[in-house]
């Protein structure tokens, strides 16, 4: 909300700058003020109307085409579904329920937030990442509508591990879509994993010496400082400045050995031989390992991925209905559709991410389901932490990361 | 003349400069060349050469969402270019030809603002403007309006530069011969500034085709544009399909740049003749 106010102030200032020259502009400025208030009021009304509409949604009910705001290529459809030999879930939903899905794509949680916050973007369903759910569900901004659980009978399929998560403890605002971990990808030729993989490969001066200049880390303050915090045995969500300082010093020491901070091509650098130890998201690594595997060559013999023994970060992307929704019942029906066992299985067969849908397991390819790097064992699960919203302390993380990177 | 003599006596400077020129050229274009070459590689890994194939182009043209995004990009670019060229040319003329009008100074400064301010700020401002102030729903039209907003400034700047070099006596001569203001504009001024107008239009077209950040802020349901789509793809997986799309976009952009260079060369020649 604060951000919006600042922006309105900027716009108003610009309008005012123009208005000193003509009376015409002055009217616009005054008009804009009133309009802004009416919009807010209208949005609040829309909120309660929306709540009423959602409460009236029955399972399987549709109330128009679905405006689906999703990450790029995060659901099988069209030629991509054919390529992966999985069901085209978009076409299947359209056929089953006789409504269309209008897909729009974003590639950044924050821009999506800005659009929803500003209103005027009538999306019915969005897929925010974990921490973004707590930002959006915050009662001060209240950008998410409460879910009508009765309209989603397949909620029973959700793995209990994915309930009561810190960013939405009651599960009132969001339903899990896909999940995964971040950890280390590595080349067996250089890294011996018989005793397990440790964050020491990056942070221990002695252990990481052979890989100096061949290590990449994610360009993300919470992820990368989180790795350092885990290595030190602290929580990735610490708000203790002393612990953060310790992690910053650790990363700063490792800086000379780190070739790059890269969140987009960490997997490509690894399989291209540019790096031998790479911090990244599991889905990214597996996508690349699969892509270079052929009938005669199995990339999994050369490359591995593991959540280090000190623990790591688990992320989950959630489905949520924003307050701008115009077809909330279709959105609920779609959520239920994704939580269906078979559809959930096909989704994971396409994304290669962990499915929070327990019933879907029987439809997931065994090689995905049995891969501990995708579906971690219980011990690893216990070591994983969600990134939680740390409020204003997030600035300290940003500062620390900038400082550590030099 | 003196400069030419100086270099003629020091051929090694010449050679060094040529070498430097080639280095810069290579530095700028070799990565692009590699990207183009690997778009024909029959391997899923972008860094591996796996023999020649056109399958990534085939996949690209058979990807309905990507083709839809390409179509949207072209639609937006054409409409935004047409409108911003007209508005930008008018603004350029107003600023150059009419010495004093109320608000000229402010307008002059504000006109450069979209060129100077960071795109993120511009995107966020437009978003607030559309959704809170106007308020209208986001759609492909808000993208077009957003693109017009920044393209207009670029066109106006290019047109103004052209106008500044224009000999005012030509217009005076036309008016002396009883051409009214409109006829003078249509038959004398516009043909003379045409290279600037077309150059500005091409600049606007290229900028519109490439824009990610502003587009992402003001895009509405179903209105996916190619650059945003490609950016999203990279987040998930870098496959040679991205190289293929990039090559396609590169080809379009290069064609536009060459056309634009053609106009600029023409405009440069014209200027010499005038002098």
The low-confidence parts of chain B are 269-275
Number of strands of chain B: 0
The general outline of chain B is globular
User: How many DSSP H or I helices of chain A?
Assistant: 17
CATH architecture grouping of the largest domain in chain B = Orthogonal Bundle
Tell me the number of helical segments of chain B per DSSP (H or I, 4 or more residues long). Answer: 12
As a percent range, the share of strand residues of chain B is under 5%
Assign the CATH superfamily of the largest domain in chain A: Periplasmic binding protein-like II
Distance between the termini of chain B: 18 Å
List keywords for this structure.
heterodimer; A: 406 residues; alpha/beta; D-Maltodextrin-Binding Protein, domain 2; 2 domains; seven-stranded mixed beta sheet; three-stranded parallel beta sheet; B: mainly alpha; MetI-like fold; disordered C terminus
Describe this protein's structure.
The complex is a heterodimer of chains A (406) and B (275). Chain A has 406 residues and is α/β, with parallel strands linked by helices. Chain A contains 17 helices and ten strands. Chain B has helices at 2-9, 11-38, 55-61, 64-97, 104-116, 119-133, 140-164, 168-176, 181-210, 213-218, 226-236, 240-274. The radius of gyration of chain B is 23 Å and the shape is globular. Chain B has 275 residues and is mainly α. Chain B has two domains: 2-38; 64-274, MetI-like fold, CATH 1.10.3720. In chain B, helix 7 (140-164) crosses helix 9. Chains A and B meet through helix 1, helix 2, strand 1, helix 3 and strand 2 of A and helix 5, helix 6 and helix 11 of B.
Topology, element by element:
The complex is a heterodimer of chains A (406) and B (275).
Chain A lengths: L1 H18 L3 H33 L10 E6 L6 H7 L4 H9 L3 E6 L2 H10 L6 E2 L3 H8 L37 E13 L12 H4 L1 H4 L6 E3 L3 H11 L9 H14 L3 E4 L4 H6 L5 E5 H11 L10 E4 L5 E8 L8 H11 L2 H11 L14 H4 L8 H6 E3 L7 H12 L1
Parallel strand pairs in A: 1-2, 1-3, 5-6, 5-7, 9-10
Antiparallel strand pairs in A: 4-7, 4-8, 4-9
Helix pairs in contact in A: 1-2, 9-10, 9-17, 10-17
Chain B lengths: L1 H8 L1 H28 L16 H7 L2 H34 L6 H13 L2 H15 L6 H25 L3 H9 L4 H30 L2 H6 L7 H11 L3 H35 L1
Helix pairs in contact in B: 3-12, 4-7, 4-9, 4-11, 5-7, 7-9, 8-9, 9-12
